[in-house]
Amino acid sequence: MNSSQKLLSVSHNIAAHASSGLSYIHPHIEELCKKAGISFVNINILDQNPYPAELADYAPLKHSLKGLHKKFIEILHKEGSTINEISAANVIIQFTIDVFGEYHENKCYAIIKATNGKEYSSNSK
Fold first, then answer.
1. Domain interval for residue 61
2. Helix 59-78 vs helix 28-36: angle between axes, to the nearest 10 degrees?
């Protein structure tokens, strides 16, 4: 598998993980986005502490997002890539808001930018 395919695979896999219940991000992230009045959040998964500044501090989510960073590194290594090949990596979670004001995950995707300037994006939903 060439490096483009590897990073596209990493992008897809981390987005799928972030969207799943295995990440333990949900429902915390929906609740905190609702409190902040925002309909999307951008998580910098290159950061060892990838907690978005616009969200109120909440320990369970902080722990889950640290786990998301670790999972990203794990997936990256499983694909035969290293952190040195990456200049940016973000997971974006977007929500729709229903007529009752409830938040529902609408889209979760990852964008990985390689040091050569190429971007790899995958949409898990």
1. 3-123
2. 120
Q: From edge to edge, which strands make up the β-sheet containing 40-44?
A: 40-44, 86-97, 103-114, 119-123
Q: What distances in angstroms separate CA 74 from CA 10, 78, 81, 125, one per listed residue?
A: 10, 6, 10, 22
> What global pTM score does this model have?
0.90
Q: What is the pLDDT of residues 7-30, one digit of tens each?
A: 999 999 999 999 998 899 988 999
Beta bridge partners of 93: 41, 108
**What digits encode the pLDDT tens for the residues 102-119?**
888 779 999 999 999 999
Domain count, the chain: 1
